[in-house]
TrEMBL record:
<dbReference type="InterPro" id="IPR035476">
    <property type="entry name" value="SIS_PGI_1"/>
</dbReference>
<feature type="region of interest" description="Disordered">
    <location>
        <begin position="758"/>
        <end position="777"/>
    </location>
</feature>
<keyword id="KW-0413">Isomerase</keyword>
<feature type="compositionally biased region" description="Basic residues">
    <location>
        <begin position="62"/>
        <end position="74"/>
    </location>
</feature>
<feature type="region of interest" description="Disordered">
    <location>
        <begin position="43"/>
        <end position="78"/>
    </location>
</feature>
<feature type="compositionally biased region" description="Low complexity">
    <location>
        <begin position="46"/>
        <end position="61"/>
    </location>
</feature>
<dbReference type="InterPro" id="IPR046348">
    <property type="entry name" value="SIS_dom_sf"/>
</dbReference>
<comment type="pathway">
    <text>Carbohydrate degradation; glycolysis; D-glyceraldehyde 3-phosphate and glycerone phosphate from D-glucose: step 2/4.</text>
</comment>
<keyword id="KW-0324">Glycolysis</keyword>
<dbReference type="GO" id="GO:0006096">
    <property type="term" value="P:glycolytic process"/>
</dbReference>
<dbReference type="Pfam" id="PF00342">
    <property type="entry name" value="PGI"/>
</dbReference>
<dbReference type="GO" id="GO:0004347">
    <property type="term" value="F:glucose-6-phosphate isomerase activity"/>
</dbReference>
<comment type="similarity">
    <text>Belongs to the GPI family.</text>
</comment>
<dbReference type="GO" id="GO:0048029">
    <property type="term" value="F:monosaccharide binding"/>
</dbReference>
<keyword id="KW-0732">Signal</keyword>
<dbReference type="InterPro" id="IPR035482">
    <property type="entry name" value="SIS_PGI_2"/>
</dbReference>
<dbReference type="GO" id="GO:0006094">
    <property type="term" value="P:gluconeogenesis"/>
</dbReference>
Length: 777
């Protein structure tokens, strides 16, 4: 729940000890690190008074310093021993206790001593130090300090009070950096991509590479000056600090008081040696995140290997070879995107031989039909994927599938224990148990710090994908995502693929005002990528409230859509070329999952596909003008209809080949792109309150329908239009009793019948006979 927003004066005091909160031996923090960290905040909100720039490690030096420092702070009468005091007027929307808890957990992992005190109505004082006994180099102390300060700042809302005019001053749109970009837009409006693309220096700069992924952004309506201004904006907005805060497990999802740690899902197995978690530990709410993650990964591997080897079987002893993954939104779209990538990947084909994976997401009964029509329930494992285990659609579909199992195998609780798996948040354990699931062996947890749309790297993707393709392939996917995480957190911003894409996203949306963009993978195996990005980005950045408690006054949150090329070319590309301007994102591969070259054809099918991948961005950028058309002899009356203005922005992403690994890379690139845009816009990319109202109203309607069906009452909804529509529906659907469907559609009836009515035998002859995924000969 929200705490009422309070207006505090925040004093960040870096303490040299003697305050009574710390043990005797304390080292002070590096002051230069503090000032650099705070620099990106709005100047007006900060008053920093550095009184020293040295770093003290020896006890003797520290105590002599303490004395001098004490005098200085004493003058301010705050009673604290400090070498640096930064004062900031803030709003804080969380409990002091909760902040203290965060810091206490930080203390366990980083040997940081922090104490938070409410000094008076408007002043919070934060005291920090590091155990002297815990030897740390300068760099490590710097890192620790960064973590502590960013943890705090993630909860701080700069000033403005209740006065919205005052609050407005915090909006990024009021900063000089934003205004410089606004002015710069008028220069860009004078340019055309035709000319920009001739600039050798520009083209030499406008690309970035990492681990085989190549981003070319020279077809954006941007110059090197634009990029400089965007990096200035990034610095102003503390982009790097916000990225660090995310990776460090700070509670940057401030409306839900949660960390955002999907990057941990693909982190190294402890002890960690990579550059992301230098100290090998990541603690959130007292739990060691990486230990938890790897415990579940091991559990996923054990379980899915056992199913695939036949060690775990169904209720009647048959091998489990069909998987129906029941879930919606983030509990569906990511896994489906990954499944489609692997379906045609050679290793994927081999590993999935003899198995099927289907997704049941929509509550539409037709989706039930599609999911299980021809499957043998005795060979089917139902995976219920729901973070909350309350989502109405998923739970009805889960009950439907449970009934389907019972219909065929009898109403025995062992049927559920042997055929139903749950992937859910640890806080849903009781609900999972109540459903009848074996929570010891068939329950796979994930955590509050994994958002639904960021969850494919957890058991959400891990269970269905490993069941179908084996755990090793899922692990390669995680490794690909991890490779991008490393790049994102370590590469300089100017060569950082997700950062560049995110900054250009802000440029296109907020300055050039292109409100939609197209994801165009030139790979049929990526056919579900656009749908995944749609949820990832639109649920993340479809917001308007900033962390200052005031709405944005600049455009945020694009409409994302897309289709694989070349299919899209024959569908909506007409609009891309001649209608509204929409930035386009072309994704292609050096090699196909399946190259195809038939006799007599000069080029392979993949080259043919890629010819389009390269041609379309230039067609969008260049266009075709009237002179060119006239030179081609086009008649004057058709010139206007055949003119392409061009100057339409796009970028091109190239990767070596679509494998599990590169699929992970793509996923992480887009996840981080979304976060970058949210960080610049000062919105929370990790909550989704906007879906709540519709859910509530659907419940109201369900109650109306119940009353009308059961009691024949006329529905009185909130307005006459809704009442009329609902009554029309109830009246005219009366004549479609389920009994009629019973004969017409056996499967639909199955979902309503019990095993006593069993009429439809499952298909036979699918037993794998111990062939580890290979069909028996
Ligand atoms: O659509 C709203 C939403 O909460 C998504 O964010 C989420 O991915 C989806 O519903 C499913 O939620 P759950 O996994 O809790 O069933």
């Amino acid at each position: 729940m929200h705490q009422p927003i309070m207006n505090y004066r925040f004093v960040l005091g870096l303490i040299l000890g003697s305050s009574g909160f710390f043990p005797q031996q304390i080292q002070c923090f590096s002051i230069s690190s503090v000032t650099s960290h705070l620099r990106p905040m709005h100047e007006s909100t900060l008053k920093t008074t550095p009184s020293s720039t040295s770093l003290y490690s020896s006890k003797g030096k520290a105590s002599s310093r303490r004395k001098g420092a004490f005098k200085r702070t004493n003058k301010q009468g705050n009673g604290f021993d400090s070498t640096l005091t930064t004062e900031i007027d803030v709003h804080m929307d969380m409990k002091i206790n909760s902040l203290q808890n965060d810091f206490d957990h930080g203390k366990q992992s980083h040997h940081i001593k922090q104490n938070i005190q409410l000094k008076n109505e408007k002043t919070i004082s934060i005291q920090g130090g590091v155990d002297e006994g815990h030897h740390q180099g300068h760099h490590q102390r710097y890192q620790n300090h960064q973590k502590a300060v960013s943890k705090l700042l993630s909860h701080i809302i700069p000033p403005g009070g209740k006065d919205s005019n005052n609050k407005k001053k915090n909006l990024v749109s009021t900063t000089p950096e934003w205004k410089a970009l606004e002015r710069h837009k008028t220069q860009i409006d004078q340019t055309h991509l035709r000319d920009l693309l001739q600039d050798q220096e520009r083209s030499d700069e406008m690309f970035a590479m990492h681990d085989g992924v190549y981003l070319d952004y020279s077809r954006q309506r941007a110059t090197l000056d634009t990029m400089d201004l965007l990096y200035d904006l990034a610095e102003k907005q503390g982009l790097k600090q916000k990225m660090d805060a995310m990776f460090n497990g700070d509670k940057i999802n401030w409306t839900e008081d949660r960390a955002v740690l999907h990057t941990a899902l693909r982190g190294e197995r402890p002890p960690i040696t990579d550059s992301i978690s230098k100290e090998g530990k990541l603690i959130v709410d007292g739990d060691d995140v990486m230990d938890e993650v790897w415990e579940v990964l091991d559990q996923i591997k054990y379980f899915t290997d056992s199913v695939r080897s036949g060690a775990i079987r169904g209720f009647t002893g048959k091998r489990l070879r069909n998987i129906i993954s029941v879930g919606i939104g983030g509990s569906y779209l990511g896994p489906e995107f990954l499944h489609e990538c692997l379906k045609t990947e050679p290793e994927g084909i081999n590993k999935s031989l003899g198995y099927t994976l289907r997704f049941l997401s929509n509550v539409d009964p037709v989706d039930v039909e599609r999911a299980c029509a021809d499957l043998d329930p005795e060979e089917t494992l139902i995976v219920i994927v729901s973070k909350t285990f309350t989502t109405a659609e998923t739970m009805l579909n889960a009950r439907t599938m449970r009934q389907w199992l019972w219909d065929f195998m009898g109403d025995d609780k062992e049927v559920v224990r042997k055929h139903v798996v749950a992937v859910s948040s640890i806080s849903s354990l009781e609900k999972v148990e109540a459903f009848g699931i074996d929570t010891e062996n068939y329950f796979f947890r994930f955590w509050d710090w994994v958002g639904g749309r960021y969850s494919v790297c957890s058991a959400v993707g891990g269970i269905p994908i490993s069941l179908l393709y084996g755990f090793e392939l899922f692990e390669k996917f995680l490794q690909g995502a991890h490779s991008i995480d490393e790049h994102f957190i370590n590469a300089p911003l100017r060569k950082n693929i997700p950062v560049i894409m995110g900054l250009l996203g802000v440029w296109n949306m907020s300055f050039l005002e292109y409100t939609a963009r197209a994801t165009l993978p030139y790979s049929e195996a990526l056919l579900k990528l656009p749908a995944h990005i749609q949820q990832l980005d639109m649920e993340s950045n479809g917001k308007k409230a900033t962390r200052f408690g005031i709405n944005v006054d600049y455009p945020v949150g694009e409409v994302d859509f897309g289709e694989p090329g070349t299919n899209g070319q024959h569908s909506f590309f007409q609009l891309l070329h001649m209608g509204q301007v929409l930035p386009c994102e072309f994704i292609g591969f050096l090699k196909s999952q399946h190259d195809l070259c038939i006799d007599g054809e000069p080029l392979s099918s993949h080259d043919e596909l890629m010819a389009n991948f390269f041609a379309q961005p230039d067609a969008l950028a260049y266009g075709k003008n009237a002179d060119e058309l006239r030179a081609e002899g086009i008649s004057e009356d058709l010139i206007i209809h055949r003119t392409f203005e061009g100057n339409r922005p796009s970028f091109s992403l190239l990767a070596p080949k679509l494998t599990a690994y590169s699929c992970g890379q793509l996923l992480a690139i887009y996840e981080h792109r979304t976060a970058v845009q949210g960080f610049i816009w000062d919105i929370n990319s990790f909550d989704q309150w906007g879906v709540e109202l519709g859910k509530k109203l659907a419940n109201d309607v369900k109650n109306h329908l119940l009353d009308a069906r059961n009691n024949g009452e006329k529905i009185q909804a909130d307005n006459p239009a809704t009442s009329r529509l609902l009554n029309y529906y109830v009246e005219n659907s009366k004549q479609l009793p389920c009994e009629d469907l019973w004969d017409a559609n056996p499967l639909t009836s199955v979902t309503r019948k019990t095993h006593l009515d069993r009429e439809h035998l499952p298909p036979i002859g699918h037993d794998l006979k111990g062939g580890d995924g290979k069909l028996a000969q």
